[in-house]
Structures are given as structure tokens and as C-alpha cells.
Design brief:
Blueprint lengths: L2 E5 L8 H9 L3 E4 L9 H4 L19 E5 L3 H13 L6 E4 L9 H14 L4
Parallel strand pairs: 1-2, 3-4
Antiparallel strand pairs: 1-3
Length: about 120
């Protein structure tokens, strides 16, 4: 199933523009609640073999999108559409065999560190 895991650090914000754009491309948006960021990316995406974890993690400070089973052409189109529609800036990743086993919060920390290293805020 082509989907996007969506984490929003601002409690009162919903997926809004992100959900509208993703819906146009047939992508299901799966919200990641703050109290579930200790779960693995694979578990949150609904993949077999990733059991629920009891561990808690500190919620990320950045908005995060993780694209799951989205082909390259669709991904490029979605990213362009998000930009054109003025969707809020987000850290972005693609679900991989490696990061599927990471807690979502760890993936968010890695993305944030990469973003800062590349000259982001």
C-alpha cells in the first residue's frame, strides 16, 4: 500500500494541505501521534514482522514525512505538488529495509541532523 507516515510536532495542526496533495496521488496518510514515535517505522507503516514496542521516545521537533512504497515518478510529482500547494516544510524520507527497524523518533533525529549538516535551520 502506497502511504505516507505523517508526524506533526504542533498539536493543533492536522495534515491539511499534505493530506490533500497525497490524496490526489492515491497515497494514504497515516498520522504518527506523539506518543507513538517510539514505535518502529515498519510497525507504523503496518508491515509484518515489526512488533509493537513498549519504549517511549522524545517527540521530534520537526514535521516528518516518510514515503512508503511510493515509486520514484510519483514521489517526484508529490514533492512538486507539495511545494506548489504551499504545504508546510517537512523533513522527508523513504521507507527502506534499514530504517524500517528504527524507532520513528530515531529516523526523525537522523533527518534533522542531515538537514542541519546540509545548511538547514
Amino acid at each position: 500500500m502506497a502511504a505516507v507516515l505523517y508526524y506533526e510536532p504542533l498539536v493543533m495542526m492536522g495534515p491539511g494541505a499534505i493530506a490533500r496533495v497525497c490524496g490526489r496521488f492515491g497515497l494514504t496518510v497515516i498520522p504518527v501521534p506523539r506518543d507513538r514515535v517510539g514505535q518502529t517505522v515498519g510497525f507504523l507503516a503496518g508491515y509484518q514482522g515489526f512488533p509493537e514496542r513498549p519504549e517511549k521516545e522524545k517527540p521530534p521537533e520537526d514535521r516528518v514525512l516518510v514515503f512508503c512504497e511510493v515509486d520514484r515518478e510519483t514521489l517526484d510529482q508529490v514533492l512538486e505538488a507539495l511545494k506548489a500547494d504551499g504545504a508546510p516544510t517537512s523533513l522527508k524520507a523513504i521507507l527502506t529495509g534499514t530504517n524500517a527497524g528504527w524507532p520513528f523518533a530515531r529516523l526523525a533525529r537522523e533527518l534533522s541532523a542531515e538537514h542541519r549538516a546540509m545548511g538547514g535551520r
